[in-house]
Amino acid sequence: MCTQFEYKCYFEKHPRKRSKIVEHNEAIHDGMSTGKISPPEELLERGGPGFAKPEPPREDQSSVEDATKLRSMEANSGIAFTRLLGLRLDPSSGPKLFTFGWNLGSSTFTVPKTPPITDFLAQDQMYSLARLYFTNVHPLYGFLDKPWVLEQLSMRWARPEACKIPDHMLAGIAAVGALFSDGSMRHVLPQLVDSAKLALESTSTMQPPCLMDVQSWLLRTLYLRTTDHPHAVYMASCTTMHLVESTGIHQESSSTAFHPSANEHLYDPDLRRRAFWIARMLNTWVSFEYGRTRVALRGITCQLPTPREGDYTTDYINLYSLSCCLDPERTNQIGQWEDFLKQLESYEVRHDGIELSKANLGLCGYRRIRLANPSLSTEVTNRIINIGLRGLEAAHRLAEQGQPWWHVANVPFQVICVFLAMDVRESLAHIATAMRTLEHVVEHFNTVAMKEALKTARFLVRLSKKRKDEDANVLGQSLKKDLAEDPHPGNMQLPSVSINGGVTTVSHGTPMTTSSNEDWNMDNILNNSDFDWNYFLTADMPAFNSFAPDGAM
Hints:
By secondary structure, the chain is an all-alpha fold. Helices cover 55% and strands 2% of the residues. It has helices at residues 20-31, 41-47, 64-76, 78-89, 123-136, 146-158, 167-178, 189-203, 211-227, 230-247, 269-290, 313-323, 334-346, 352-372, 378-401, 407-422, 425-428, 431-444, 448-477, 480-485, 523-526, 533-538, and strands at 498-500, 503-505, 511-513. The protein has a three-stranded antiparallel sheet with strand order 1-2-3, with no helix packed on it. A hairpin with a 2-residue loop joins strand 1 and strand 2. Helix 14 (352-372) packs antiparallel against helix 15. It is globular, with a radius of gyration of 28 Å. Mean pLDDT is 77; it is low at 26-56, 255-265, 496-519 and 541-553.
């Protein structure tokens, strides 16, 4: 390349700061072939006994092949070639990366006008919502510069011409913060969300983005993940990743034609790293939960962010590193998933929000391990149960505090589904705990979605009970002759059981009502002996492919 463009060829190798976790991930990758994996002492101290991380995603491992692919991408692009040609002719004044001759340029697009945030939100209200955001959300998702944001916030009302932060970022901060309020600020949510949405869709997706656009889309992704349909969250997280690639923050220092200004960015490099890793974590986890393909970028060289006191962002990113083995492109090997669950159980967390994500990953690991081996050992079963129970405790505490994190609802419901699907005495013994936790969440967040989740969970438990009642009835049929010969067989009595119209009747004639006044009409299902219980309880969960075409759940 240097010869072609008559450059003076030289290469400065900058030592890259490597995380102990990433280094050990690569060691694991090398050790899997020999079966010898021994975590370093630093990881054992940080994550607990036996803690080790899986190998990083394949695209993180830079190689000559990756560099060749990146050069091929540049060679495909006529836009990039224009810049390379200009740099060859005059390196000091070459043209910027721009769409010269891309089309006829007949577009009539103009940025739509959105009402300024000062029209519907007072300064004291904005301060109050910002405090809620930085108290509850920022410690887990620390991709904003808090002092700078608060400084710019004060100027937005006092000296608007000097304010550098866009209104859509302020609106995103206020919208997410309002979710953690006592309900007094919910009336401004529609205006905040609509104004931020209109501004983001008409600026960052229509014009070259900057880091603040990435941060604003992260705020929108967090808001949608807490409140909206999985499809909306997935699309927002994918958009964020595409903006990450457009800004080049996934590369530690960029010299490519696609991101020529990455080195000239005025923002703190650690802030860029945090924005990239959080965007990638959200997109990956949402794609896992929704059953969709994540956005995989090429040429990732971004370092891990630096830990800060009172900040849990790096803890979250370390947990994400552990979850990379859940990528659908990885092979399903029983030993791999057992190691993953062992490492996950050993990983120590310092925040209940991360504990919920850890529990969700454990449930996801169970669904993956069933593909390799439906018959689980007692050790693996107990490990999954322990991870789920810790998640239930965290959900109970966060619900008590009024923290509306999405996994507060998701983890108790999924624990019920997984424990029912495991169908062993050890898991069924904790169904009542999971149900009480879900009921506790519904008491604190009495929404239509939560009521439907609770109703569905009770419905699944009744279906499981019906199946076991039928099994008991079948076994009872085999003892009918013994009962006829000896109507009083010592201390054992097995009455026959029949279910009719939602009422269970035993042989001595005492009716027991098995259904409460629920809205579900379950008579036909409960009395249908042809219902395929094995398929229902062992099918992959969540079955997101069952969404209707109009997006209804």
